[in-house]
Amino acid sequence: MKLKNALLPLSALVLAACISQPDYRASDADLPVVAEVDLDRYVGRWHEIARYPNSFERGCVTAMADYAQLPDGRISVINSCTKEDGRMDVAEGKARVVEGSNGAKLKVKFAPSWVPFAEGDYWVLHLEADYSAVLVGAPSGKYLWILARDPAPPQATIDRILRKAEGLGFETAPLIYAGNPA
Predict the structure, then answer these.
(1) Which residue, 109, 140, 139, 142, is CA-closest to 124?
(2) What distance in Å separates the CA atoms of residue 147 and residue 3, rounded to the nearest whole number?
(3) What are phi and psi of 76, to 5 degrees?
(4) Over the stretch 36-85, which tens digit does the pLDDT of each residue have?
């Protein structure tokens, strides 16, 4: 396995300050998040269903994020991506909850830990009541992911999340779906 500084949903956000990405959110309005995220229910494995194009996931056919609670209150993050040629890339980081967000806003940091500005936004914009799927993005409008516990969630769930993204002002046409590397 190859460790990278930036990969997949959480690590992508870390690079937001360094990499020029298109802004796919048409609205300048504040970006609302869900009222609360029960982190004990949220941790575990999430499969990437769709994402905005980004340089750190180029060539990824499938991607997953594994989250675990740490004793200090932070969350361990392990992102993995299977490339077109079958290689697996892995990135490890840590996330902290933004105070006052009820777990809906996280700041994520990947190696190298000494880079002071390398912390990215991970905002939970929609969460299915049973914690089976989620819409995650950044307030900049440059990053957006649909994640699910099942690698093939029901189309009705995906459609509901897409409508939510559009309602928040995000374009959905640029999304790349799992199995379609870009």
Answers:
(1) 139
(2) 22
(3) -75, 140
(4) 999 999 999 999 999 998 877 888 899 999 999 999 999 999 999 999 89
Let me know if 6 is exposed, middle or buried by CB neighbors in 10 A (0-12, 13-18, 19+).
buried
**What domains are defined for the chain?**
2-177 (2.40.128.20)
Those residues with Cβ within 8 angstroms of residue 125's Cβ, 6 or more apart along the chain or in another chain: 31, 32, 33, 34, 135, 136, 137, 164, 165, 168
pTM: 0.84
Distance CA 95, CA 78 (A): 11
Which helix (H) or strand (E) covers residue 83, if one does?
strand 75-83
Instruction: Yes or no: say if 93 and 74 are a contact pair by the CB < 8 Å rule.
Output: no
